[in-house]
Amino acid sequence: MSFEVFEKLEAKVQQAIDTITLLQMEIEELKEQNNTLKHEVHQSAGNSENLVRENQHLREEQHVWQERLRALLGKMEEV
């Protein structure tokens, strides 16, 4: 009888070990996914900063062109 109890206990221990192993593998996969996502977020933030700078530069360039165009239109009106 105690041999049967021992076998049941051994089976439960083995099942627990298998479950722990699977959970550890899942944790490793989730860590890798987390690192990948962190990298993507960092990259996106950098891209966003670049786009903001480029947008600001283009707005300034547009302003310069508008001023030049106004000056030319002003000269044309004088003629």
Automatic annotation (TrEMBL):
Keywords: Cell cycle, Cell division, Coiled coil, Cytoplasm, Septation. It comes from the Bacteria. It is found in: Cytoplasm. GO terms for cellular component: cytoplasm. It holds the Pfam family ZapB. Its main location: cytoplasm. Signal peptide: none annotated. Residues 6-47 form a coiled coil. The keyword Coiled coil applies. The keyword Cell membrane does not apply. GO terms for biological process: division septum assembly; FtsZ-dependent cytokinesis. Non-essential, abundant cell division factor that is required for proper Z-ring formation. It is recruited early to the divisome by direct interaction with FtsZ, stimulating Z-ring assembly and thereby promoting cell division earlier in the cell cycle. Its recruitment to the Z-ring requires functional FtsA or ZipA. Homodimer. The ends of the coiled-coil dimer bind to each other, forming polymers. Interacts with FtsZ. Belongs to the ZapB family. This is Cell division protein ZapB. The gene is zapB.
